[in-house]
Structures are given as C-alpha cells and as structure tokens.
Amino acid sequence: MTTGALSHIKVLDLSRVLAGPWCSQILGDLGADVVKVENPAGGDDTRKWGPPFQATREGARGDAAYYLCANRNKRSIAVNLRAPAGRDIVRRLAADSDVVIENYKTGGLEKYGLDYGSLREVNPDLVYCSITGFGQTGPLADQPGYDFLIQAMGGLMSVTGEDSPMKVGVPAVDLFTGVYAAGAVMAALMARDRGQGGQHVDMALFDVQAAMLANQASNYFVSGEPPGRNGNAHPNIVPYQDFPTQDGRIAIAVGNDGQFAAFAAALGRADWAEDEAFATNAARVENREVLIAKITLELAQRSTADWRARLTDAGVPNGPIQKIDEVFSHPQALARRLSFEMAMTDVGATRLVANPMRLSATPPDARRAPPLHGEHTDEVLQERLGLDENTLNGLRRDGVLA
After folding, report:
1. How far is residue 76's CA from residue 388's CA, in Å, rounded to a whole number?
2. What are the helix and strand counts (H, E) for the chain?
3. How far apart (Å, rounded) are the C-alpha atoms in residues 306 and 311?
C-alpha cells in the first residue's frame, strides 16, 4: 500500500516510448496504480532502443536502458488490441479507471472503440489524456511527431548550438510534454472531484515546444526579430556562459549588476563595474563582444579550481562542466539521493534516477521497478476484472494475451 498523494487514482496507460510513459511514471511516483498496456509482440518500442541493454541474472540480454528511465511504478500487461476480446479487456479496465493516457496517432483508437468518445460512455468521470505530435486539430493533426522533428519545427534548434542548428542532448520536448501532461491530468482530476466530470486532455508536442520557447518567444514578440543561436551564451544576460580557463572550462552566471561588480573585483578588474559600457546589464548586452573578449583573457590565466574558489568566495555563481558520472557522484547529488537502486525481476539491483519532487507529507515513492513485458497480466486481470486461470489460459491460446 502507498500513502502517496495519488494513491486513490487508477491509471490505464496505453502509451509507449517517452512522453506518455514519462507522464504516467510521474503519476505512479505520486502513488497512482498505473497499469501499462503493451502489445504482445515485444511491447514498448523502447525496450529495444539500445545498446546499452540490461543483463539478466542468467546473462541474457534484457531491456534497453532507455526503457528503464520512464517505467517504474507500473504493472505491465500484454493485450492484443486487434482482437475483440483484447479490446473488451481494455474497455473494462477503462471503466474501472480514473485516467487513460494514450499516444496513438490522432483518431487511431477510434477503430478499436477506445477513443475518448467511446470510453466516456462507459465512464463519464474519466480523464482521458491524448499525447500526439500536433494535437487533435489543425492541418498537421494526422501527422506523427517525434522529439527531434518537433525540436526542429518548433524553433528550439534555431536558438541552440553555435554555427549550425543543434538539438538538445536529451529528448526535451518529450520530457516537457510528459510533465505538462501530468500537471494537466492532475488539474482535470481536481475538477472532476469538484463535480465537473471527466474531460479530454489534448497534449501536443508542438504546442509544448512553442511554450518552452519562453523568453526567446517574448524576445521575438517584443523586438520583431527572430532570435538566433548564442551557443552557451544567454540572449539577455552578460556574462552568462562558459569560459576557457588555464586547464579547462568554467560556467559563470552573473544575474545582476551587483554580482557583476563582485565578479569584476574577483578578476582584479573592479574598474569594469564603473565603466559605462559594462556597468549595467543592458550595456553589457550591447557591448557583449568586447566584454567577453576581456573576460576570456583574464580567466585563461588561472586554473578552473582557482577561479571556482575565488568566485565562490566573492558570491559569484559559478560551476564546473560535469560529465554524467560526475553528477551522480557529486556530494550534492548524494545528499539529495538523486539516484537509488531497486530490485528488478530476473535482473536484480537496478539503478534509477530519483523523482525530484520533495513533498513533506506525501513524497514520491519508488514501489515497483520497471516491469518486464507482460509481467503482471494475470495479476491485474484477476484483481481488476475477476478473470480466473482457465479464462486467462483460454485468452492466451486465442492470442489475446501474451
């Protein structure tokens, strides 16, 4: 049993890959009972998105590392939606659920009778979340959407990189969409609990990417000029980027004029803070190239460790550029327990990244390791639908269950 904030919520997850599973994992971390429905022929595509792959206790190839990042706190059932009996199973589970999450192409579940309109008839209080590339409306509604394509089409790559467009190093649009979707689902559940009934949540990667443009979109709206690429530099703040040192690089984030004065003093150039060309952030942005050249010359004189000590003592935000292994071995990461191990069936100890939400009374809880394909088919269908062993065996013989 869980005491999580969503421990009373049942989620039926028909999604795969990342945006949908990321959403359902968040709900599961907060206590929801998440049932992941997978096709019998291999399941979620990301189980095969490797290497690297997990190794089982017997040394066989297990699931891809990619799959592990988004599928804890779920029970997996393998059901064939092409079979009428399989669709009936999912429909019955939806009737007994609070939330359905799906990421089929727009209209893709109508032929199975598993679209929002159909399931609303059996469960008027259902919160039904559809995650697609471009949403349920508009000229591109029927087109598939992948994170990389949306980063390109949605403007993110136009402001990322240096000499050429560059995608972000993680699937940021999928992840943001999953987070937005989880928030939308929880808002819809609150509305339902106030007597407003269920509703359809329409989440589109393209919409989320546009929202993620944030200050860059505002820069365009105000100036009328589409922002370009600044590499690691900030379009609105200077200095706010990485610089080479004597033995590496250092990230510096000067957020206001007081910090700049402290920064200049730490570099032995207190006069910069009195110079009209650099005294204010607006002036520093206007004179970016001149100032960055001066800073670069100064920082190249000492080691990263030396500058980090000096700047930290001066109260100037700075940090190293760390590799992922360095992140998870950092004292701050250890203090905050940003990774942990769980026992995974047929595998053993599996290391995962922790949910970053910190709630004092109802914290996220890792109760279940990422499930094997169809690991909980019998358990869920016996528990939720009351199917007996003979019925389950018959459904397997008919190709309805894996």
Report:
1. 18
2. 16, 13
3. 9
* H-run or E-run covering 63: strand 61-64
Q: How far apart are CA 203 and CA 13, in angstroms?
A: 15
pLDDT tens-digit readout, 44-103: 999 999 999 999 999 999 999 999 999 999 999 999 999 999 999 999 999 999 999 999
At residue 6, φ and ψ (nearest 5 deg) are -110, 25
Domain 240-324 carries which CATH code? 3.30.1540.10
Strand-pairing partners, residue 79, are 401
Kindly report, residue by residue over 264-316, the tens digit of the pLDDT. 999 999 999 999 999 999 999 999 999 999 999 999 999 999 999 999 999 99
pLDDT reading at 147 higher than 90: yes
Q: Name the segment(s) of the chain with CATH classification 3.30.1540.10.
A: 240-324
What are the backbone dihedrals phi and psi of residue 68, each rounded to the nearest 5 degrees, phi first?
A: -65, -25
**Encoded tokens for 375:** 């690991």
Here the contacts of 263-266 (C-beta below 8 Å, separation 24 or greater) are 263/239, 263/311, 263/314, 263/316, 265/314, 266/310, 266/311, 266/313, 266/314, 266/316
pLDDT tens per residue, range 7-36: 999 999 999 999 999 999 999 999 999 999
Mean pLDDT in residue range 182-196 = 98
Location of each CATH 3.40.50.10540 domain in the chain: 10-212+336-397
Before 52, cis peptide (omega within 30)?
yes
Cβ neighbours of residue 341 under 8 Å, at least 6 residues apart?
Answer: 349, 350, 351, 352
- Distance CA(15)–CA(10), nearest Å, equals 15
Q: Which residues are annotated as catalytic?
A: 174
CATH number of 10-212+336-397: 3.40.50.10540
> Which of left, alpha, beta for 157 (phi over 0: left; psi -120 to 50: alpha)?
alpha
What does pTM read for this prediction?
A: 0.95
Report residue 33 as tokens.
């009972």
Tokens encoding 4: 């999580």
What is each CA distance from 58 to 54, 73, 343, 348, in whole angstroms?
Answer: 11, 24, 15, 11
**Amino acid symbol at 174:** D
Whole-angstrom distance, CA of residue 402 vs CA of residue 395: 9
